[in-house]
Amino acid sequence: MAREQLGICTEANLHGSYLFFNALEGHERVLRHKLARLPQLFDRLAVHFSEALLTSVVAIGSNYWDILYPDARPAGLSPFPDLPAEDIDLAPVPLDLLIQIRSDRLDVNFIAAQQVLQLLQGHAELQEHIQGFRYLDGRSLTGFIDAPCNPKGKAKRVAALVDHIQQPVFAGGSYLHLHCLNFDLSNWQQLNTKQQEDIMGMDKVSGKPLPPPLQAADSHYAVVQPDIARGIFLQQNMPFSQPKVQGMLQLTYCADADVLLQQLKRRLGLAEQNQGYDQLLNYSRFDFSAAFFVPSISFLELAARP
């Protein structure tokens, strides 16, 4: 049975480190071996620092997949869609690798990130390193509970992990859409609570959706809640803050690539019966977006064999 990467369905942590790489040309054979070693590296650290609850994700960019693993490709894996949304630039970028590190200790994340950099040195170039953090017990920088529609318990695995019957080779893997969003915190904070709740479509304290008569069809809640009939997904988001930039890393995992595409269209107001794009995007800007596939540990190890 395929062993999934534990960072996909993990519970929320206090700290996150996200390392984005582009691979050096001609280093594919070595990188296959290096990437297969990463889960073992993280396992050793997780045992040594057991109280930190360390987990990880090794994700392969959609544009790089065929170069790194030319013998098999997940069904539906494609470059991040550059959709024609009016006045909204998704800023898609072709990133080759994402290494996600999450734990309850910032120093453990630092140690893990340093070991990743040492392992990949000379084979992949670091493009970006973003530090995320848990904010006010699971809220985004809006002050509202983040991802209130997320599946719970065993439903996480159903939503996020590829089923072995549908794709035996990629069982336990997950499709991933990532957004780095820059949030206009100063303008947001000028709104009163009622205005914020109208935009978000939910109560600021409890996170419960507003009653249907009060909830706009293009409120954030109405647009991002999963379409149960078409498939659900799992969000593992984290706020980040830099001296001049505050925002959110949004990571959406799903067992079906098409569900991610349809959800993105809904948020941009491009899906059928949509009545507008997500109102929260009036206070956000996409710094970059990318599409990845997160293979199972079993796949990483098998693909590294001669």
Helix content: 25-40%
Task: Return the domain count.
Answer: 1
Could you say which structural class the secondary elements and strand pairing correspond to?
alpha+beta
The amount of beta strand, in percent, is: 15-25%
* Total count of strands: 9
Amino-to-carboxy terminus distance: 22 Å
Question: Which features characterize this protein?
Answer:
nine-stranded antiparallel sheet; 9 strands; alpha+beta; about 300 residues
Question: Could you explain the architecture of this structure?
Answer:
Strands 1, 2, 3, 4, 5, 6, 7, 8 and 9 form a nine-stranded antiparallel sheet that branches. Helix content is 27%, strand content 23%. Strand 7 (238-241) and strand 8 (246-254) form a beta hairpin. It is an alpha+beta fold. Its cofactor is heme b. GO terms for molecular function: heme binding; metal ion binding; peroxidase activity. It comes from Rheinheimera pacifica. Belongs to the DyP-type peroxidase family.
SSE layout and pairing:
Blueprint lengths: L14 E9 L4 H21 L6 E7 L3 H4 L28 E7 L2 H15 L3 E10 L21 H6 L13 E10 L1 H5 L3 H8 L19 H5 L9 E2 L2 E4 L4 E9 L2 H11 L16 E11 L2 H7 L3
Antiparallel strand pairs: 1-3, 1-4, 2-3, 2-9, 5-8, 5-9, 6-8, 7-8
Helix pairs in contact: 1-3, 1-9
